[in-house]
Specification:
single chain, about 325 residues, alpha+beta, Yope Regulator, Chain: A, Multidrug-efflux Transporter 1 Regulator Bmrr, Chain A, 6-stranded antiparallel β-sheet, 6-stranded antiparallel β-barrel, 8 helices, about 25% helix, about 30% strand, globular
């Protein structure tokens, strides 16, 4: 469950007595900063604040919890209605936190979704359940064998990267995108399916339908993408008209980090399916839900046995008997 905008705004106002409060959206949740220091997270409409000695001295009764699976424990702030008390707690916390390290040339650290959203881009090698919030992507749709030299899939990837890097580099040209901040172009992703079939039969690559895609930062609007499609086409002499903005709310999935060649994926998928069944989940390839892959390794530079690919399969909770 993602945060509600009203709750996030309320928390910002309640903490404002501590200093200049800023909020940065990170994968449907929010990092919360005071005078440039990140002191906590807002996840699922709950405020989590970093554990410090000063905070513990002020509120020794506070319980701790992790904002998300794999995160360090934080103070769980269940009472956020006393603005003066909450601001004092934030102030005490930030006094013990270091300032961000300055970067060369005064440049800020580019946002890297692989690091900011580790739950989604760096899952463990064992299957787990994840609820993926809505996101927007650059996307190109197509059909056929992705390994076909010079085929439709390879053309789609070239178009996606042309538009993605035009958006990223816009800060260096006349086009000024409102709210722009430096970021790393996210990894290539793909949704895969075969008509009339649940799941994926890798032996019939020619029967694939796919949506190849790259995640968009939240500040990029549809009109910015329209500009980038035109600009990339002009500069690269490409027809980028097949590139579109694709909003996708993925929802409940079982996911796993697969390490190895693409041909070895079926064994990992089988383990994911078994994990889902054991924990009360069933595959759910209903309309608009697909097998999902995120490619963290460049196959041109990485040996097949070392390639890292995030695998996701849509699931639904089965009814208890």
């Amino acid at each position: 469950m993602a945060c509600h905008a009203e709750y996030v705004q309320y928390i910002g106002e309640q903490c404002s007595g501590a200093g200049e409060i800023t909020l940065r959206k990170m994968f449907g949740e929010y990092g919360i900063y005071c005078d440039g220091k990140i002191f906590g997270l807002i996840c699922d409409d709950q405020l989590y604040i970093k554990i410090t000695a000063g905070g513990r001295a002020l509120r020794p009764e506070l319980e701790t919890a992790s904002p998300y699976e794999g995160a360090k424990p934080h103070f769980l702030m269940t009472d956020v209605d006393d603005r003066e008390s909450l601001s004092a707690f934030v102030r005490a916390t930030c006094e013990e936190l270091p300032l961000p390290k300055p970067k060369k040339g005064g440049e800020s650290t580019p946002l890297d979704y692989k690091k900011a959203d580790k739950e989604l881009y760096q899952p463990p090698k064992k299957p787990s359940i994840v609820d993926v919030p809505a996101m927007r992507y650059l996307a190109v749709r197509g059909k056929g064998d992705p390994n076909e030299a010079g085929g439709e899939y390879q053309t789609a990837i070239a178009l996606l990267y042309a538009v993605a890097y035009t958006l990223k580099m816009s800060e260096k040209g006349p086009r000024k995108i409102e709210g722009y901040f430096p970021y790393v172009v996210p990894p290539l992703e793909g949704l895969w399916w075969q008509e009339g079939s649940d799941g994926i039969d890798d032996s019939r690559k020619e029967a694939f339908s796919w949506i190849s895609m790259i995640r968009l930062p939240d500040f990029i609007k549809n009109e910015d993408v329209d500009w980038a499609i035109t600009e990339a086409g002009r500069k690269k002499k490409l027809d980028c008209s097949k590139v579109e903005v694709f909003p996708y709310e993925e929802g409940l999935c079982v996911q796993c980090m697969h390490v190895g060649s693409y041909e070895e994926e079926p064994s990992t998928i089988a383990a994911m399916e078994a994990y889902g069944r054991k924990n009360g989940y069933a595959a759910d390839f209903a309309s608009g839900r697909y097998h999902h892959e995120i490619y963290l390794s460049d196959p041109r530079k990485c040996a097949p046995e070392k390639r890292k690919t995030v695998l996701r399969c849509p699931v639904k909770k089965t009814e208890a008997r």
